[in-house]
Design a protein that fits this description.
There is one protein chain. The protein is an alpha/beta fold and 179 residues long. It has two domains: 69 residues, Translation initiation factor 3 (IF-3), N-terminal domain (Ubiquitin-like (UB roll)); 83 residues, Translation initiation factor 3 (IF-3), C-terminal domain (Translation Initiation Factor IF3), CATH 3.30.110.10. It is built from four helices and eight strands. A four-stranded mixed beta sheet has the order 2-1-4-3. It is rod-shaped and about 85 Å long. The termini are far apart.
Length: 179
């Protein structure tokens, strides 16, 4: 069995004895500025208060150190990070491909898919591919796309109006958050 060594603070934070020797700008537990003091004096004040000395601004000269409960500070930081992650919204872009001469049943099926995607909060990229001679009749594709957008109604916002990109007509639809 080997010798057990005390664990050191492995995080990037400078706490108590991990703070390099020199002067620090000290802030007490109430947030009052106590001025520039040596690290040892700051550590003594922290230990007298039964708290830790934590560097809160490592880039400044001198270092800014605050007297606080380090474990509570770390817990609050982790809690805040979790809350930020929870509040993040991931928006995916789903693509639905149509044909200019799509049949009604297929159209309705694609419409239901789009409604489900919009309901989940995702954006929908609506694309119509023109083959061969169909390229001369882009107006039929425009009618199909306009009908699709009309059927979705107030649940969407047209983010990018239908436009031709090579052989494809593309429009981007987003959920209407104002509804």
């Amino acid at each position: 069995m080997g010798i057990r060594r005390p664990q050191r603070n492995r995080s990037s934070e400078l706490v108590n004895e991990d703070i390099p020797k020199g002067n620090v700008l000290l802030i007490d537990e109430n947030g009052d500025n106590l001025g520039i003091v040596s690290r040892d004096v700051a550590l003594d004040k922290a230990y007298d208060a039964g708290l830790d000395l934590v560097v809160v601004a490592a880039q400044s000269d001198p270092l800014v150190a605050k007297i606080m409960d380090h474990s509570k500070y770390r817990y609050d930081q982790q809690k805040r990070l979790k809350e930020m992650k929870r509040n993040q919204v991931v928006v995916n872009l789903k693509e639905i491909r149509l044909s200019p001469t799509i049949e009604m049943h297929d159209f309705n099926t694609k419409l239901k898919h789009a409604q489900r995607f919009i309901g989940d909060g995702d954006k929908v990229k609506l694309s119509i591919r023109f083959y061969g001679r169909m390229l001369a009749h882009t107006d039929i594709g425009m009618e199909t796309m306009n009908k699709f957008v009309e059927e979705l109604g107030e649940s969407i916002i047209v983010e990018a109006k239908p436009k031709m990109e090579g052989r494809n007509m593309i429009a981007i639809l987003a959920p209407n958050t104002k509804q």
